[in-house]
Amino acid sequence: MSTEDPRTAILALLNHRQDQAATQTRQDNSAVNFGDNGIFLTAATRNGAAVLKAENIDRAMALIRELSVENNWLQPPVFAPSIEDASSKSSLWPTLGLDCAAEGCVGVSVAYCAIADTGTLVLNSSTNSPASLNFLPEHHVVLLTQGRTVMGKQDVWQLMKQERIETPRAINLISGPSRTADIEQTIQLGAHGPRTLTIILIDKTSL
């Protein structure tokens, strides 16, 4: 049986909790570890994503147009509201509303950031970045700004803290196209989401 004085035990417990809180505060204020774009692109390709590069948003729109022609995507893409202006200025397609996402062949989203270690895209849901575009279209194109790649998942939360981002309703982590092996242990693409994923890394621009 312990002979420790109850008061001493309580004070020791309180001191321990204060030490834990101080450690957590230091962790909360720690720097974000940014990752290497090359590592991310290698991992993303390994996950089954196609990767393209563009010097600016206008070139990204042109690349999407080229993809549409090459892959015979007959319907105009459905763009996230945050980039509708860029798509309309390019005059390449008519503007489709989000109500077309379920029937749309192609959805175009903007990533909040990416995780280098796993080749994962991070998409925060909002009115300007609806989660429906991440799952309903058959083909998914995601724009990622260069310099928004962090090393690991913990750095995503740290980046959100530093940028004072309110926790969104949903945070989608996307590592390649949708796939499943539920049917006869054979990999099937597009069972629960887009069949293809294309990442366009945009240089020297902010989305």
Automatic annotation (TrEMBL):
Q: Where are the transmembrane segments?
A: none
Specify the LUD domain's residue ranges.
Answer: 106-202
InterPro entries from the xrefs?
Answer: FTHF_cligase-like_sf (IPR024185), LUD_dom (IPR003741), NagB/RpiA_transferase-like (IPR037171)
- One Pfam entry for this protein is LUD_dom
Q: Report the protein name in the record.
A: LUD domain-containing protein
Q: Which organism is it from?
A: Ketobacter alkanivorans
